[in-house]
Design a protein that fits this description.
globular, Arc Repressor Mutant, subunit A, alpha/beta
Length: 224
């Protein structure tokens, strides 16, 4: 049973959402601010965190930044604002998904299941291209022997690209394979996450040697 940590100062919301998620088969814990959320992370090591952006004591942005210094646990951000700068801010800090308020509980549950499913891989053990090596059993990535820290979504994106080495993949296909069919209208996810993935795996992100743009078509993974 996957354990979800809800970090939000709206107690009425978390009480109702907790009840709904338990009915969906999840174990749920709650925290009312980022400070308590980080403590709960240490105590329980949840499988996924749902994190509100606007909270007292320690807001969601500060919490996510602190969290990413110590953990790669999947994080879904909740916010009342749905504009592009906030979305980019969340992704740049390492969020795996972003759900603007108001939202339906069923929608959030579907997003949770989709994010948790990204850590599942096929039966092969390694993917290798050039200096890049991916261990699919341990979810570890190395470049030239150096370990790289990727979020679960970044890892799934890299694996998807490497399994299509030498092929051009459209943003639509990437979104479907990495995020799932329910994200078919969120093509911008591919562009944003490709940018962040390059910052971590490319020796020089401005001159990529692994993930190449095929203008007007999509992306191609190859080790130059």
């Amino acid at each position: 049973m996957a354990e979800i940590l809800l970090v939000d100062d709206d107690v009425n919301l978390t009480d109702l959402l907790s009840e709904f998620l338990r009915g969906q088969g999840f174990s749920v814990r709650t925290a009312v601010n980022g400070r308590d959320g980080l403590r709960a992370l240490f105590d329980r090591k949840p499988d996924l965190i749902v994190l509100d952006a606007n909270m007292p004591v320690k807001d969601g942005w500060e919490t996510l930044k602190s969290l990413r210094e110590i953990s790669e646990v999947p994080v879904i951000m909740l916010t009342a604002r749905g504009d592009e700068p906030d979305i980019l801010r969340g992704f740049s800090l390492g969020a795996d998904d972003y759900v603007p308020k108001p939202f339906s509980f069923a929608q959030l549950s579907a997003r949770i299941k989709a994010v948790l499913g990204r850590g599942k891989t096929a039966t092969e053990e390694y993917l290798r291209e050039g200096a890049l090596e991916v261990n699919l059993r341990t979810c570890q990535v190395k470049r030239g022997g150096e370990f790289l820290d990727l979020t679960p979504t970044e890892f799934k994106l890299l694996v998807t690209l490497m399994r299509h080495t030498g092929q051009v993949i459209t943003p639509e296909v990437l979104v479907r394979e990495v995020w799932g069919p329910q994200y078919r209208d969120e093509i911008g996810y591919a562009r944003r996450y490709i940018w962040h993935l390059r910052q971590k795996i490319e020796p020089d992100p401005e001159n990529p040697t692994f993930i190449h743009n095929e203008r007007g078509f999509g992306y191609c993974f190859r080790a130059d």
